[in-house]
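note to self — DONT lose this again. spent like an hour looking for the file last time. sequence + predicted structure for the chain T wanted, 127 res
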Amino acid sequence: MENPYQSPGAVVDVREKPNVSLGDVVSGQKLVIYAILLYFLAAALRTVIGPISLLLVFACLVMSWIGIYQIACGLSYPLWWRVILLLLMLVPLVGLLVLVMLSSKATGRLRKAGYSVGLMGARDYQE
């Protein structure tokens, strides 16, 4: 039987200390999220400004490659898997699915480490 006069226990926020791998996951996830948004913006602007929007698609591709590589390094993926993920970005719809999948894995890793993750990535991560 528990003591009814016992003071309540404190809820301790246990977070993993910021380190290089978590920093890579955070920055990579932000780049991937921005690349997804830029991808949709470029698709919408393609009807308005025409072929000039291909520059936005190229910028989206570069941002997503950097983000994918950072997330894959932070999650300790082997090199051959990183290369496959980077090559999959060249296939239009598959590339978008890869970005969403990696962002989801990064969110899971950050939540497991004890950080709050919102729509635009980790909210309170500070290196």
